[in-house]
Amino acid sequence: MFQSFDDLSDPSCGAPRAALLRAELARLGLDGFLIPRADAHQGEYVPPNDCRLQWLTGFTGSAGVAAILGDKAAIFVDGRYTIQVRDQVDLEVFAAQHLINEPVSDWLKENLLPGQKLGIDAMLHTVREVRRLRSVCEEAGAELVTLNENPVDAVWEDRPAAPVGQVSLYPLELAGKASGDKIAEIQAVLKEKKADACVLTQPDSIAWLFNIRGSDVEHTPLPLSFATVPSSGKPSLFIDGRKLSNSVRDALSELTDLAEPSTFKTGLSDLGKSGAKVMIDPALAGIGIADAVTEAGGSLIEAQDPVLLPKAVKNETELQGARNAHLRDAAAYVNFLCWFDEEAPKGGLDEIQVAQKLEDFRRETGVLKDISFDTISAAASNGAICHYRVSRSSNLKVPVGKPFLIDSGGQYEDGTTDITRTLAVGDVSDEMKRHFTLVLKGHIAISTARFPEGTSGAQLDTLARIDLWKAGLDFDHGTGHGVGAYLGVHEGPQRIAKTGTVPLKPGMILSNEPGYYPAGEYGIRIENLEIVTEARDIPGGERPMLGFETITLVPMDLRLVDASLLTRAERDWLNRYHARVREEIGPLVGAKERVWLEKATEAV
Predict the structure, then answer these.
(1) Nearest to residue 226, comparing CAs of 246, 197, 191, 190?
(2) Could you point out which of 9, 107, 202, 524 has its C-alpha 20 to 30 Å from the C-alpha of 583?
(3) What is the pLDDT of residue 43?
(4) 93 vs 102: CA distance, rounded Å
C-alpha cells in the first residue's frame, strides 16, 4: 500500500514535549518560539524529519503554526482543520485558534511582553512573514530573533534522517519542452527584470525546470533541493549527491553545476559578494536566504518565483498526458464504484477497506507510480472533517443511510489526478439530497463558466457558493486549486478561492470542488479537474471568452440528486457529462462494469 493507516498523532505528547522545548528556549535566552508546519522549501509536502509541528503538538494537517511562550501556547489552523485539531492536540497545552480569524499576529500582540525575545528558524519563515512578525514584536516592545539552528531539533531525540530519494530524468516526450529551453525562458525573465540571478526554493519549480522527478516526500515526486539561476550561464543545483545515479548526474551536469545543499548558503554569499541583484520570491523564500545575500553585499529584487507561471500553464504535451491519465484513472474508478455499490449496502465495509480497494483498482492499471495524497475515505461524521485522514483508531464502518465521501487521486508518469465523489449508501434523506444538489449546482456553475481574459479565481469563487449562500450554507475552504503535471496535486499560483488573485490562463489545470459539511453528521464534496481553455467567440457576443474543459470522467451519484432543484440547463449539463462518461469510459471497463455504468449514467 502507498497509504499507511498508522496513528500519527498522540495528544498526550504535547505537555512533555512543550516542557522540553521551553527548557531549551530558556537555555538559549528566548522567551518564545514559533513552530510552523513548513520546511526550508516552504512547500506543502514536508518530509518526516521536518514535521516539527506534528512532533510537538500531534497535529498532522498540511497547514498550521504553533506559538509557545513561557506560560501559554496556541496552535493556529485554517477552516479545513478546526475539527481535526481538537481531536489531535492537547488543548490544555495548546489553545486552538483559527489561523485566519484569530491570526498569530493578533495572539502575539496580546501575549508578548516588553523586553521579551521571540525566536524563529530563519529558513522556516518567509521574507514577507518576517516583516509582519517584526512589526508585531516592535509594537509589543519585544525582539524577534532569527536562528540558524532550530531548538525543536535539539530536543527531538528520535528525529528521522533527511530523505535521500532517488532522482529520475523526466522524458521529453512527457515534459513537452527541453530543460535547456525552460532555463533560457527563465533567464529571459531575469534580464527583463534586470536581475543577475534568481533563487528557487520550491522543489516542484526545480523539478519542472530541470525535467527531473524525485522521491523525497510521500505521494509527490519531488527532489528536495535548492537552485540559483543566473541571467546567463549555467544554473547551480544544490542537491544531495546520494540522490543521483551516475547517468542522472551526467545528464544534469550538462545543464547545471551540481553542489551539496550544505554549500547553499555559501553560494548565496558568493552572489552577494559579487554585488549581484538577486530575485527572490518574498512569499516563498526564507528570511535566511535573503539575509545570506544582503549581508554579503548583494541586493534583492522581490518578485514571484519566475517558474510558477510557466509551470502552471501546461504545454499541449502535458495537457494530453493529463487527459490520458484521467481516462485510465476513470476506468479504475468505475471498477471501484461498481464494487462499492455491491458491497457497501451489506454494512460490512469500513473506511480503510474502501481506501485499500480503490488503491488496488488503480494499481491494476500497471502504471500507477503512487497515490497523489492520502485518500480521504470518510464515513458519517468523519466526512465533515474536510481533510480527514483515516487511521486504525479513527476507522469507522460505512453506515447505510448516509453519504460516504471519498477524495483521492493517482500519480501516473503522464499526469496527476484528483477526484472527489460523494456516494449514497442505501436510502438517504431528502435533506441530504438537497445539500448534495446545492453543491452540484455550484460545481456545474464553475464547469460552465465563461469569463474574459484577466479573470481571477477569486472572481469565479462566488459561482460555486451562491446557491449554498441562498440557503444560508457555505464551505470553509477554497473551491479549487492548481494541479501539476506529474508533480504536486496542489500547485500554485492559480486557484479558485477568495484569495485567488492570479488571472487564469489557458493551459492551467484546476480542481472544481465545492462542498458542504454539517458538523458531526456527514460531508459532501464533488470534485473534477478542469483545464482552462483558449478564449473563444460566443454567438452574439462582443469578445472571446475563456472557459473550462472537464477532464475527470466519473459518474456522479444520481441517487443523491434532487432533480427538482436543477434548472433545465443544469440537467442538460449533467446528462451531457454522463453521456460523455459512458461513451469514453465504457469501452475501457469490463462487461459487468459497463452494465453498472449504463445505469449510473442514465439521463435525469
Answers:
(1) 197
(2) 524
(3) 83
(4) 18
Residue 319: pLDDT band by 50, 70, 90 thresholds?
Answer: very high
- CA gap 315, 422 in Å, rounded: 32
DSSP letter at 263 equals G
> What CATH fold (topology level) applies to the domain 11-155?
Creatine Amidinohydrolase; Chain A, domain 1 (3.40.350)
Tell me whether the CATH fold assigned to 168-304 matches the one assigned to 313-599. no
pLDDT tens sequence across 425-464: 999 999 999 999 999 999 999 999 999 999 999 999 999 9
Residue-wise pLDDT tens digits, 136-159 = 999 999 999 999 999 999 999 999
Q: Global pTM?
A: 0.95
**CATH for 313-599?**
3.90.230.10
∠ Cα 415 386 319 (to 5°): 15
Distance CA 105, CA 130 (A): 11
pLDDT of residue 148: 96
**Boundaries of every domain in the chain:** 11-155, 168-304, 313-599
What lies within 8 Å, CB to CB, of 351 at 6+ separation is: 377, 378, 379, 382, 390, 394, 395, 396, 398
| Backbone angles phi and psi of 303, in degrees to 5 | -160, 160
